[in-house]
């Protein structure tokens, strides 16, 4: 794979701007193509860039969804950020070599509405090779194996449901804006009256779209769900029930979740997916008895698929690294079900995730004793466990045995090894493995190339990042959303938020949908690394306009951004909004939060806030503020003047 030099203009930019070399390599060397394939000229001289530092984002705070009535306060001297146009399309598909265990994921639900207006992000004019960034022709897009299960669930929406929701975007936007207004007004506001006044035409697509917008805010989403059922013009379907069960399970509102599953039974809407969601939710919380209880309830209600149901329970435990619990369930139920290869694979995964390689080896031997032939998935699971457990010699030995005796390694096998070399900074070994992969006629996928991009980026070898990007396009393996996220993370870690923003803009143009992690990284970059409050707020607004529901991390980053930039009153407002949605109190800089109020002449602001929300009937919010006040009482040193105006101590 030949390495092409960075263009001279970009090299000059690197000389002028230091770390801008990274962006030059990512932007100019990524192809630098216009829509028609012509090269984009790169200016030779660059004006000084105002914002060069950035960070990784965790959470902001403004109202959910496109809510123009309460924009964040932005200092006047700074010009407003430029808007990007275009909607986020669905360009994500599962890549090759994905672990084929039985899926416990929720059913494919409605995707976010992509019909919202243009977004307030990111592309200051005068960017050199920036607009040429990653100018690859739009085609197939494969997701990497690094995507989390939650991301896969969120991105697994069916095209039919997305099309249905896009047919009524105005109604979705109106309902979501009404809910956001009620949340901002307080938990005691009458959401039901506001929704009844709107009287939207309820349908399965609309309900799913609204629930997806508030999937991290279980209180308003549950109230909307109940209102939709009581409105008289809509009957919840199995899919809408499963979506609500998933929201409650993720928020660990287990009483409400179980009650909803029971309600599904009475309404004749029960499905296997609802039980899988409940089992996975309990397993994620470590409540094994309840997970097994749901499994037994599933059988009693006639949803027993034999060994597949058994495997579903094992996989839920395995994904959480509950090896001992998975073994206990395996031994308890193996008389009722005959374990198959997938059952043992799930048990092997459980021990590998628990980093107990001794027990994993016993499961492997037990499989052989039962006369089972481990396939490539089992081998990959074991190799990945050995790599995580720092047992690389054994992993390499198993890899060599696969090449000699079979099953032959696939793209996932090579990608795991390449990722491990990249994490340890052994890029020469990673490239040797990559070349061996090609010699074995095993085609690299997007996940493989993304690992190399991240590895070379972390090693600050931007010439090789350029070469990998060029080789990627020449082989017809086009970047997907995970690749763009990896490039954004590289730039944010190097304190270059504006360049990360341009990559985001290109990502949108290619029809790839950003995730909540994309926005969190960029927000944190602007608030903490770039010290650019207006652009941090712009990212928050962009996230709303794309219909993405902020999670706890998003709120935490946004609240910390307000505190860091001397806006404690704004932080208080968003903390209250966050708790009204049913989220946990954020982990913020309590010392600075209380100190800012103390300097402003309000040393007892937390007690005052606690009393204020208590009078408003918001006891949960009041308890949070009161706990903070007690915690800060012993930490903040105050200057106590005497009557003469001199310090007493």
What does this structure look like?
The chain is mainly alpha-helical and 649 residues long. Helix 5 packs across helix 7 and helix 14 runs antiparallel to helix 15. The termini are far apart. 53% of the residues are buried. The N terminus and C terminus are likely disordered.
Question: Could you give the topology of this structure?
Answer:
Blueprint: H1 8-17, H2 20-28, H3 149-154, H4 159-166, H5 169-185, H6 191-198, H7 204-213, H8 218-230, H9 238-250, H10 254-267, H11 272-284, H12 288-300, H13 307-319, H14 323-333, H15 341-353, H16 357-369, H17 376-388, H18 392-405, H19 411-423, H20 427-439, H21 446-458, H22 462-474, H23 481-493, H24 497-509, H25 516-529, H26 533-545, H27 552-564, H28 568-580, H29 590-599, H30 605-615, H31 619-633
Main pleated-sheet profile: none
Query: What value does the average pLDDT take?
Result: 74
- How many individual helices? 31
Estimated share of beta-strand residues:
under 5%
Name the structural class: mainly alpha
Characteristic key phrases:
single chain, mainly alpha, disordered N terminus, disordered C terminus
Q: What's a concise summary of this model?
A:
With 649 residues, the chain is mainly α. The chain has helices at 8-17, 20-28, 149-154, 159-166, 169-185, 191-198, 204-213, 218-230, 238-250, 254-267, 272-284, 288-300, 307-319, 323-333, 341-353, 357-369, 376-388, 392-405, 411-423, 427-439, 446-458, 462-474, 481-493, 497-509, 516-529, 533-545, 552-564, 568-580, 590-599, 605-615, 619-633.
